[in-house]
């Protein structure tokens, strides 16, 4: 609580300073206010702070005059220097487009998917392809195309419709199970109509397909041939380019553990790849397709086995 003492009653009060006490330590007069034994000194405002305020106010006024500053209606004051970051951004973008159009035009024809481009053109295109992937694909397929749960790996040689750049371009354009009329379709049906014991046997068989030394049961083999081989191929090797993945490698989209496989067999799966036609140009789609087709290096394929 604020406790004030009448300055006239303060010991050591100086009548020449309005009966205010002089602090014996600092030599400053007090204001006559006291809080819990702490007396307030009547000190001058620091000059450095005053000068700082003056300088900042002067700078603000100069900035208002020289730079874009005050909005009014649908516009704003341009400033005497005419600096505009929006205009500069558009100019920089147009400059970037003009510099890359020379080599990007070579990707605007679908023939490039069959013939490819020379090394010099690809050196210029590599950074743009990296950016295209990062901006449009990495959120689902991973930063280095390593895949995520529910999204296939793209840095190996196991492709649902083949690794040919033309087929990759088609998938990018129209998507998988998307709303586009030319979309690809791929669906794992639910096998909940199978007996529980048969589903368990089939689940264990599929799980063991990844392990070369695992013992595969005859009943599981029969169930697989009757219900799965038509799409996934004999012994789950895939490669039929019908949208059904291989079940023998580390690229299984929804997991190859017991629980995941059991869920997939009982309930089925249906992923969605959106159509990018209309959002990416033809040249960008072709560039991205060639980029993805090059990711399946021998090293990546060996590590995926």
Write the layout of secondary structure elements.
Layout: E1 3-4, E2 13-14, E3 20-21, E4 30-35, E5 38-41, H1 47-66, E6 71-72, E7 75-76, H2 85-104, H3 112-115, H4 119-136, H5 138-141, H6 165-174, H7 196-208, H8 218-227, H9 229-232, H10 258-267, H11 282-293, H12 298-304
Antiparallel strand pairs: 1-4, 2-3, 4-5, 6-7
Notable traits:
305 residues, mainly alpha, Cytochrome Bc1 Complex, Chain D, domain 2, 3 domains, three-stranded antiparallel beta sheet, two-stranded antiparallel ribbon, 12 helices, 7 strands, 43% helix, disordered C terminus, heme binding, respiratory chain
Question: How would you portray this structure in words?
Answer:
It is a single chain. The protein is mainly α. Helix 6 (165-174) packs across helix 11 and helix 7 (196-208) packs across helix 8. It is built from twelve helices and seven strands. Strand 6 (71-72) and strand 7 (75-76) form a beta hairpin. The protein folds into three domains: 3-41, no CATH class; 105-185 and 272-304, Cytochrome Bc1 Complex, Chain D, domain 2 (Orthogonal Bundle), CATH 1.10.760.10; 196-267, Orthogonal Bundle (Cytochrome Bc1 Complex, Chain D, domain 2), CATH 1.10.760.10. Helices cover 43% and strands 7% of the residues. The protein has helices at residues 47-66, 85-104, 112-115, 119-136, 138-141, 165-174, 196-208, 218-227, 229-232, 258-267, 282-293, 298-304; strands at residues 3-4, 13-14, 20-21, 30-35, 38-41, 71-72, 75-76. The strands form three sheets. A three-stranded antiparallel beta sheet has the order 1-4-5, with no helix packed on it. The protein has a two-stranded antiparallel sheet with strand order 2-3. Pathway: Energy metabolism; oxidative phosphorylation. Residues 124-210, 215-296 form the Cytochrome c domain. The chain crosses the membrane at residues 48-70. Belongs to the CcoP / FixP family. It is found in: Cell inner membrane.
